[in-house]
């Protein structure tokens, strides 16, 4: 589904990703872990198309399409979704309005018409209940005055409404208390099926107790230095990043 | 000038210059006393009105075009403009929609103004102005039953001369400024609203203006009067088709609010802005002023300005009555090479007067925009208060925004607060929206609409929707 090959990315003349390889298949949940500043957010941002990152070499393909040739919105329309580490506030734009515009834009790209209003309302009500958010959030401006945890729930709400094929969730667990973590994790798990994939970016093992990944990768200094299954995350917890890397490859 | 001479002049002009032109629809370009006499005669005006116009004309001749605004345009050749044009009609004034030229109605449809539907659905009375003549007036009867007068200014001059004499030019004096003087001399149409004591106008009143024929300046004159405890909400909307040459538009709007009266005046302005090189487009020089004459009266201006090549416009309030309130809510959007110099003046004269100013300016492309606001507190305005919020949003790197707040405070018990922000449209906000699948253009308009929300919510519901649509049209191609 997603194929990242030998990706080199430079930000403001500094090389951040230095030959990164990653393959994600439909139905899989991958977790990327690594210390602060390793380049985790850079990876998901480059896949989503954020400006200011220069891809100096390498390739990204999603379902056979050359992602680097696509506009930001085309990537989203193709089924990629980035859940932000720090969701931005958009004053004056209602949450429900953004949801509707996004959903209908993606439908239009698939050649479908707008979702009829009653069906849309039903869908949104169901998802907002699932996220245990108060319906009043729909009428508030996007992320404006939301607490950290509320912003994260809101990201997952968008994901549930948009139903992406590949969701990349950047530090979706940061700033969440244990109850909120459970709600967010349940939301993410409800998206899991054989046709979709999820890429979790985190530097804590905790989230992975709730969303058990198929694969775990350790990202350090711009490369994936180690990959394994869910057990690897637990080892990391005990040993720390430096030790894991120094251990000779099995 | 003596009356006799004037009459001679009028007669002579008919004989020599305009005999055939009376039948025709447009006078040749040019402005002199005979042009004014022609207009006045065409409108069937009484002599005092003609004299009023000629007086304005003579004052105008002595005045100079203002140069203080932050605008750049070539000098206007006032002799190259035609000052009167009317659409072709089979009969005289149509009595109902059935009698209106279907072609004309078609044009309105294209502009998104299906008159009968709009009127029926929204309960809006429409006094539509096509070029210089009122084409159709609906709901006149219902309004009549409430005692509200809503008609063209020409009709009002004929049918309500006492009201016109009492109020016309009392808010914006003939020689107030260059463009107001010109308007006073040559205005051809516009609306008149009179809401008598204690009456709340039963519906929104709305007028759509449109410039159509080539090279015709449009000079509307609008006068709205609310007697004690009367209320009215009025909306003026404009759209203009593509034009090659710049067209002059110099309107005057006068509002009078007596004791406890409330006038809400909303404008959606979408004159043709010219192409991306600044060719064509409307020059919009407007004088709008409200006079809160009575105690506790309130006048509220809401404007959405998306069009025109050049906008020069400062809807203002004179807060004369004790505890009267003036409000100004504005969204101005410029793109391409548009230039806008707009703002407001709040003149606090009475005790305990209050004013609110919320101005949102959005500049894209190579456009330039200035907010110019004056808050003046007179010596008797004890405890007066003003709050000004002035926000500018820049799209791209080649547009400009300037803020010129002026304050003249003549009473130490007054409170004047001013807040201003300038921001660039957030890359992060754009990325966020686009990463949800929303196109860049839609994302921009979504963010901009959000930025303008405080003002849009002041607009009547159906017009708020229209305003958002207009904003989107204006910002097309603003990024990327
Ligand atoms: N826009 C930027 N400008 C300059 N440096 C950046 C920018 N974005 C990221 N970086 C740098 O790139 C490195 C990786 O950042 P990031 O991908 O956010 O790491 P992580 O998410 O793993 O903590 C850091 O050193 C960070 O300072
Ligand atoms: Mg990060």
From TrEMBL, chain A:
<keyword id="KW-0067">ATP-binding</keyword>
<dbReference type="InterPro" id="IPR027417">
    <property type="entry name" value="P-loop_NTPase"/>
</dbReference>
<dbReference type="InterPro" id="IPR003593">
    <property type="entry name" value="AAA+_ATPase"/>
</dbReference>
<dbReference type="GO" id="GO:0005524">
    <property type="term" value="F:ATP binding"/>
</dbReference>
<protein>
    <submittedName>
        <fullName>Fe-S cluster assembly ATPase SufC</fullName>
    </submittedName>
</protein>
<dbReference type="InterPro" id="IPR010230">
    <property type="entry name" value="FeS-cluster_ATPase_SufC"/>
</dbReference>
<feature type="domain" description="ABC transporter">
    <location>
        <begin position="2"/>
        <end position="246"/>
    </location>
</feature>
<keyword id="KW-0547">Nucleotide-binding</keyword>
<dbReference type="Pfam" id="PF00005">
    <property type="entry name" value="ABC_tran"/>
</dbReference>
<comment type="similarity">
    <text>Belongs to the ABC transporter superfamily. Ycf16 family.</text>
</comment>
<dbReference type="InterPro" id="IPR017871">
    <property type="entry name" value="ABC_transporter-like_CS"/>
</dbReference>
<dbReference type="InterPro" id="IPR003439">
    <property type="entry name" value="ABC_transporter-like_ATP-bd"/>
</dbReference>
<dbReference type="GO" id="GO:0016887">
    <property type="term" value="F:ATP hydrolysis activity"/>
</dbReference>
UniProtKB/TrEMBL annotation, chain B:
<feature type="domain" description="SUF system FeS cluster assembly SufBD N-terminal">
    <location>
        <begin position="140"/>
        <end position="200"/>
    </location>
</feature>
<dbReference type="InterPro" id="IPR000825">
    <property type="entry name" value="SUF_FeS_clus_asmbl_SufBD_core"/>
</dbReference>
<dbReference type="InterPro" id="IPR055346">
    <property type="entry name" value="Fe-S_cluster_assembly_SufBD"/>
</dbReference>
<feature type="domain" description="SUF system FeS cluster assembly SufBD core">
    <location>
        <begin position="209"/>
        <end position="451"/>
    </location>
</feature>
<dbReference type="GO" id="GO:0016226">
    <property type="term" value="P:iron-sulfur cluster assembly"/>
</dbReference>
<comment type="similarity">
    <text>Belongs to the iron-sulfur cluster assembly SufBD family.</text>
</comment>
<dbReference type="InterPro" id="IPR045595">
    <property type="entry name" value="SufBD_N"/>
</dbReference>
<dbReference type="Pfam" id="PF19295">
    <property type="entry name" value="SufBD_N"/>
</dbReference>
<dbReference type="InterPro" id="IPR010231">
    <property type="entry name" value="SUF_FeS_clus_asmbl_SufB"/>
</dbReference>
<dbReference type="InterPro" id="IPR037284">
    <property type="entry name" value="SUF_FeS_clus_asmbl_SufBD_sf"/>
</dbReference>
<protein>
    <submittedName>
        <fullName>Fe-S cluster assembly protein SufB</fullName>
    </submittedName>
</protein>
<dbReference type="Pfam" id="PF01458">
    <property type="entry name" value="SUFBD_core"/>
</dbReference>
């Amino acid at each position: 589904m997603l194929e990242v090959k030998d990706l080199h990315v430079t930000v403001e003349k500094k090389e951040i990703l230095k030959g990164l390889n990653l393959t994600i298949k439909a139905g899989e949940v991958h977790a990327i872990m690594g210390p602060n500043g390793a380049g985790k957010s850079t990876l998901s941002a480059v896949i989503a198309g954020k400006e200011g990152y220069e891809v100096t070499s390498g390739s990204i393909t999603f379902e056979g399409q050359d992602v680097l040739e696509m506009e930001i919105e085309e990537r989203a329309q193709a089924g990629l979704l980035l859940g932000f580490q720090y969701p931005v506030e958009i004053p004056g734009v209602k949450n429900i309005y953004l949801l509707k515009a996004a959903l209908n834009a993606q439908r239009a790209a698939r050649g479908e018409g707008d979702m009829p209003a009653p069906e849309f309302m039903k869908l949104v009500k169901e998802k907002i209940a699932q996220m245990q958010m108060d319906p009043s959030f729909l009428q508030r401006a996007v992320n404006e005055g939301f607490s950290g945890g509320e912003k994260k729930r809101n990201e997952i709400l968008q994901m549930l409404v948009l139903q992406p094929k590949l969701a990349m969730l950047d530090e979706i667990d940061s700033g969440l208390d244990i109850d909120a973590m459970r709600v967010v994790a349940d939301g993410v798990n409800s998206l899991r099926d054989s046709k979709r994939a999820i890429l979790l970016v985190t530097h804590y093992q905790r989230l992975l107790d709730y969303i058990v990944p198929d694969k775990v990768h350790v990202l350090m200094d711009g490369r994936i230095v180690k990959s394994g299954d869910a057990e690897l995350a637990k080892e990391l917890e005990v040993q720390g990043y430096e030790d894991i890397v120094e251990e000779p490859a099995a | 000038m003596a009356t006799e001479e004037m009459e001679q002049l009028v007669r002579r002009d008919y004989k020599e210059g305009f005999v055939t032109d009376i039948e025709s629809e447009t006078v040749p370009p040019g402005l002199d006393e005979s042009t004014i006499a022609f207009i006045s005669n065409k409108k069937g005006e009484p002599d005092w009105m003609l004299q009023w116009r000629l007086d304005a004309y003579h004052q105008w001749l002595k005045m100079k075009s203002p140069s203080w605004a932050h605008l750049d345009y070539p000098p206007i050749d006032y002799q190259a403009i035609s000052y009167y044009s009317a659409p072709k009609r089979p009969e005289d004034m149509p009595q109902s929609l059935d009698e209106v030229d279907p072609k004309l109605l078609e044009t309105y449809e294209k502009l998104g103004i299906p008159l009968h539907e709009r009127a029926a659905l929204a309960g809006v009375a429409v006094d539509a102005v096509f070029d210089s003549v009122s084409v159709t007036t609906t709901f006149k009867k219902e309004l009549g039953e409430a005692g509200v007068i809503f008609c063209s200014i020409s009709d009002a001059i004929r049918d309500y001369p006492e009201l016109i004499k009492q109020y016309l030019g009392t808010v914006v004096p003939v020689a107030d400024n260059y463009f107001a003087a010109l308007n006073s001399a040559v205005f051809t149409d516009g609306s008149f609203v009179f809401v008598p004591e204690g009456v709340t106008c039963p519906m929104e009143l709305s007028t759509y203006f449109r410039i159509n024929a080539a090279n015709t300046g449009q000079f509307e004159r609008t006068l709205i009067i609310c007697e004690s405890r009367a209320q009215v909400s009025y909306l003026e909307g404009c759209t203009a088709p593509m034009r090659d040459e710049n067209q002059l538009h110099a309107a005057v709007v006068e509002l009078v609010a007596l004791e406890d009266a409330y006038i809400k005046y909303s404008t959606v302005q979408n004159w043709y802005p010219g192409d991306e090189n600044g060719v064509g487009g409307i020059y919009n020089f407007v004088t709008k002023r409200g006079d809160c004459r009575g105690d506790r009266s309130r006048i509220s201006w809401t404007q959405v300005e998306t069009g025109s090549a050049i906008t020069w416009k400062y809807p203002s309030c004179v807060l004369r009555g004790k505890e009267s309130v003036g409000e100004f809510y504005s969204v101005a959007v410029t793109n391409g090479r548009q230039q806008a110099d707009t703002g407001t003046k709040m003149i606090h004269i009475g005790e305990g007067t209050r004013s609110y100013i919320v101005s949102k300016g959005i500049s894209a492309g190579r456009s330039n925009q200035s907010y110019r606001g004056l808050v003046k507190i007179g010596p008797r305005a004890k405890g007066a208060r003003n709050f000004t919020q002035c926000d500018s949003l820049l799209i791209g790197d080649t547009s400009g925004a300037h803020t010129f707040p002026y304050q003249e405070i003549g009473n130490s018990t007054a409170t004047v607060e001013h807040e201003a922000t300038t921001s660039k449209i957030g890359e992060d906000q754009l990325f966020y929206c686009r990463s949800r699948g929303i196109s860049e253009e839609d994302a921009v308009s979504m963010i901009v609409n959000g930025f303008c929300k405080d003002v849009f919510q002041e607009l009547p519901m159906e017009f708020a929707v229209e305003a958002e649509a207009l904003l989107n049209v204006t910002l097309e191609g603003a990024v990327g």
